[in-house]
Write a structure and sequence with these properties.
The complex is a heterodimer of chains A (about 300) and B (about 400). With about 300 residues, chain A is of the alpha/beta class. Chain A folds into two domains: about 220 residues, P-loop containing nucleotide triphosphate hydrolases (Rossmann fold), CATH 3.40.50.300; about 60 residues, Alpha-Beta Plaits, CATH 3.30.70. Chain A contains eleven helices and 14 strands. Chain B folds into two domains: about 240 residues, no CATH class; about 150 residues, abc type-2 transporter like fold. Chain B has a four-stranded mixed beta sheet, with helices on both faces. Classes of the chains: A alpha/beta (about 300), B mainly alpha (about 400). At the A-B interface, helix 2 and helix 3 of A face helix 1 and helix 9 of B.
Chain lengths: ~300, ~400
Amino acid sequence: MKIIEVKGLKKSFGKIEALKNVGFSVDKGEFFGLLGPNGAGKTTTINILSTVMQPDEGTVNINGFSLQTHPKKCKDSVGIVPQELALYNDLTALENLVFWGSLYGISKSKATEKALKLLKLLELDERKDSRIKTFSGGMKRRINIAAAMIHDPQILLMDEPTVGVDPQSRNQIYEVLAGFIKNGVTIIYTTHYMDEVEKLCNRIAIIDYGEIIAGGTLEELREIAGSTESIIIHFEKNVDSDLDTLQKYFGSRIVIDEKKLIFSTGESTNDLPVLLRKCAQYNLPITHIAIERASLETVFLKLTGRKLRD
Amino acid sequence: MIEIAFKDLKIFFRDIKAVLLSFLLPIGLITLFGLTFGGLTESSGSQHQTNILVTDLDSTATTRDVIAKLDSLKEISITMVGLEEGKDNIMNGNRLGLLVFYKGFADSVENGKTQPIELFYDEARKMEAGLIQYALISNLMKILGPKTIKRKVMNSIRTKYPKLDTDMMSQIEGDMNEQFAPAESGKDNNGGIGKMGGLEITGLARKQSVNWALIQSFAGTAVMMLLFSVAAIGSSLLSEREDGTLKRLLYSPISPIHIMFGKVTFAMVVSVIQLTVMYIFSCLALGMDTAYNVFYLMLVIIATAFACSGFGIFIAAISTSRKQAEGMATIVILLMSAIGGSMIPIYFMPGFMQKTAVISLNYWSIQGFYDVLGRDASFGQFIYKVGILMGIGALMMTISASLFKRNLLKVV
């Protein structure tokens, strides 16, 4: 069952076309990743889905309701975890959650009950009466998520929810999100961390220049990109200066990062000997060679021609 | 809406330093202005007593009598000095004025001639000297006027009608003495000739002994400080935008207008509390007159709070950042307070400035407090001031609401 259906979304800011023709759908209970470099249109898409921005064209249906005609019903169905730590530092964790719950018409007693459950789930129940300003960055991130879940939404929109979070807290967050998914919550997730998307998302849409350029599971994206494998070669010295020479021959399938070269390919057995011959020709001493399944980063690079943070 | 106001109140009262500053600063300023305007220790029944130096170069019974009468006045106290010492004191800025009775003063009075008397004053205190000059002229006229006039009339009759016989002259002089006697003795209470040259001034108010200076200090300071408080509350909306909480508020089902009115409600509650605390403090600690009608007082407080809240939100609505709002608010508040009578009482200002004052929110609020705390004005007489304050608030909120809808969406 499609819980989110987006068709033909267009949005311009003056002469800048932020969204050209965005369309995708998300199934109920799915963990959907929206990937794209800065300025690709991710945040504009999230803003439209969260009803705070109107599209110029296109339709959005959330949980069976049109965003244009039933914005309140859509808002009730959606919880949003913004990139900012949108919390009141002088209120306690519990007070913050109860306040955000009250905006959805939840009574104080019910909001308190729900807040305590969420705090327990996020392992913050012992700090429920501490003010947010005394929390660490990771703890604040977790409360930020709890605030979005206080009204029991069926859909969770998460915009870079783990920025600046330590690995331990990130793992805690992943576990909590897995729990939400198990309970039937649908999650749309944007992040810069490729490993997060690989680990968490069932399906991924790659957005660039305001358009969805590819979508599907990671395996499907590998097929689309034609790079199911990566040849990784480590050199003795920094080979950044040789990038242009190698790219003239192999095109944009090659990425060099100091002493490491990553080559995206669908046929490593054919491409590896050619690559090794070229390295020998340019006198690049190799220390280590590996062939791996293509990572999302490699796929992304292949599809967009740029790194995620470009 | 209520949830937002309640949340903000909780945050506000949790910041003890901010709360203390919100109340202690206005209290300090009210006390300071009260002292400055001389309102803390005096009621309207008493006045400042100005010390005047006096040099008596005539040294006659007449001059001693005049000096004694001046010294008995409640607004003037006399210190006798020599001429040079007195002039030195004036030039050194130690004293305001030196009144010199020159030789021949008594003769001049007896003969109905211009009296040789002079007032020296400190140039640096010209305005103050003007006031004391008025008081001296007025009182000297009371003391010497009847005698001088009587002598002048008698001299004039003698000059113009030299052939009048002695009996007739004695009869005229007797009649004159009879007419001027009450004024000369200071017992003329019927507005007779004894009042000549001295304009009797009587304050009119329904209440007696009103401490106007203190009401001015309370009303002027409280409104000015309230404007600063609500401007800060308005700016907090811009802080929420910067912190990202405003974006999250917009994600929720409440509308942007509800968010704005949540802030207005918060500003209203804080304003009413602040004005009430200022009023209670001014009454209990400084001895300000209490309102004759608590309901009327509450109306003025609520109307002031409403207008000020409208101002705070308006500043937030037209600003694009917290810093911009704070800068703009400071300039506008100081300007409104200066022309509206918060800093300097309206009656000290020139005519055109007094007319300009009506464009200021401060003016209407201060006048409203004057009505309920001093003038004991009837409902009909003061309600239009409440209406104007409510109108100012409503106008600012309406403009803010339309700007708000548009500007708020720039958050995303």
